[in-house]
Amino acid sequence: MRLPITPVTTLMRELRGQLRQLYPAGRIIVFIDGIDAPAVDAFASLFTEIIEEDDVAAFHARLGDFHLSRAEQAERGVVVDEDALRRALIGPFRSGSLDSATSGFQLGTWDADRDAPLESRWVTAPADAVLVVSGTGVLAPELRGMANWSVWLETNENMLARRAGRSTEQPYTAAEFSYLKNAKPASAASVMVDNTNVNAPVHTYRDSC
Fold first, then answer.
1. What per-residue confidence (pLDDT) applies to 209?
2. Which of 45, 122, 135, 185 is the 20 to 30 A CA-CA neighbour of 172?
3. What is the distance between the alpha carbons of residues 5 and 1, in angstroms, rounded to a whole number?
4. Alpha-carbon distance 90 to 111, whole Å?
């Protein structure tokens, strides 16, 4: 089903065109990152639907569904279960292009709200398919190499500053600031989008000067 024409869907169709020009077939992995986690997941979910408009199988997975337990996070100082992400999702999705009828992958392994494992649900896909993975941190140096193509969603600092616990002087949390400073996710992305107005996102370009 084709979604209505809006500023959002128009932009996403342009992004889909760029993606498919580079990767017209095969198993393709797209990462979508940004500081505003709920907006990132919403953008990714809709982008998955836009990809499906071309009769292409598309799947959306959230990085938040591949977290370590709270106890392990505290012990190891990391949040994402990179091993589970590779073993249950990325690896089998890629290898499944050779045997899509029997190879399956999981779109999540951990329920962060319950701090408990998700029920195992294995998904299969045809040889030509797109996997969209969204979440703040997905373009971290140790993860970004898994993707064929990626999007960074920028949010104006003034918008972030209005949220509880933040201010104009400190629009980011300590973890967010560290991620932006050390990982430089925007620089690693294939495409940048100003998503400050979620109803009218704008494709932005890096300053070449």
1. 45
2. 45
3. 12
4. 18
Classify the C-alpha dihedral 16-21-25-26 as positive or negative. negative
Lookup: tokens for 169: 């002087």
Domain over 7-192 is classified CATH 3.40.50.300:
yes
pLDDT tens digits for 146-199? 999 999 999 988 888 888 888 888 888 888 999 999 999 999 999 999 999 999
Please identify which residue in the block is written with the tokens 């294995």. Answer: 122
Least confident of 58-62, 65-69, 87-91, 202-206: 202-206
CA distance 61 to 129: 14
**Rounded to 10 degrees, what is the CA torsion of 204, 148, 32, 191?**
0
Provide the percentage of residues in the chain whose pLDDT is more than 70: 95
Instruction: Give the confidence band of 13 by pLDDT, cuts at 50, 70, 90.
Output: very high
Where in the chain are the domains?
A: 7-192
- Which tokens in the block code for residue 142? 């140790």
Q: Residues 199, 200, 201, 207: is their CA dihedral positive or negative? A: negative
Contacts of 23 (CB under 8 A, 6+ apart): 148, 149
One-character DSSP codes across 155-182: --HHHHHTSTT--SS--S-HHHHHHHHH
In terms of Cα–Cα distance, which of 91, 71, 74 is closest to 82? 91
pLDDT tens figures, 57-71: 999 999 999 999 999
